[in-house]
Amino acid sequence: MKVSIYGKKFKPEYSEHLKRLFSKLKDINAETYIYTEYAKQLDEDYGAETYKDYHKLKQLSPDLMITLGGDGTILNAATFIRDLDVPILGINLGRLGFLASTEKNKLEDAIDAWVQGSYKVETRTMLELNSNIPIFGELGFALNDFTIHKRDTSSMIKIHSYINGIFLNSYWADGLIVCTPTGSTGYSLSCGGPIIFPVSGNFAITPVAPHNLNVRPIVIPDDSEIMFKIEGRSENFLCTVDTRYETVTSEHELTLKKSKMVTRLIQLEDIAFMDTIRAKLSWGFDSRNQ
User: Fold this and answer.
1) How is domain 2-118+269-289 classified at the CATH fold level?
2) Which site in 4, 182, 272, 275 is 20 to 30 Å from 199, CA atoms measured?
3) Is residue 71 flagged as an active site residue?
């Protein structure tokens, strides 16, 4: 039984949870590996072998990845797993997350559930980005979203959009978001995009501050191929996949499609997507009587 641990930034208040985690993993005789840069930040040496990238993780071939942090930590972890088909158990060390839904006080229970097989695995669709001018290297994929955005204080941009080779629209806006169902509760939601259930088989295209007020978010099947061309007064524009970004120009033709890779998230049986939505968005909560 092999377990990899991934975190981005260690804080002293996490120390107790790390000790509990390693103690529990020792109890179940797990071989434990920890991300190199995270291990360097720890206030204690847990004696675990380290890994620095996808290629090393592939050699180690873990059965499970445990992430320590929030949703952003899981987005980063996906760049290490890629096509390895390793499920992620997200331990939330901060505020309630949509992805890292296992609270730190249930850490031991979550590992017991994994050992006993009393959990479910949600398979999350990912986006794959291709460009006529290469960008992002090996990391041209996203679990959450892809965006095109104007740079700094420059004027709005014009984004010509095509679905399966057919012209959809020219968006005059500050930017454009294409999100997976997983990403629908992130940046897209803050720009007025729809909430999409995780296994619905759709992507959403959401404009950012569109000039034409009759332009609205649109939901499309996830087997669609989406292509963008950009115009603007500036020479450079910003393109992102999840937390990674590159500079693009009007010479770039950007094509999105459903990736062959997926991210597999472990969820405890008693946690449902609707439960998380209600808690995160305070649905059904009347603050007037508080």
Assistant:
1) Rossmann fold (3.40.50)
2) 4
3) yes
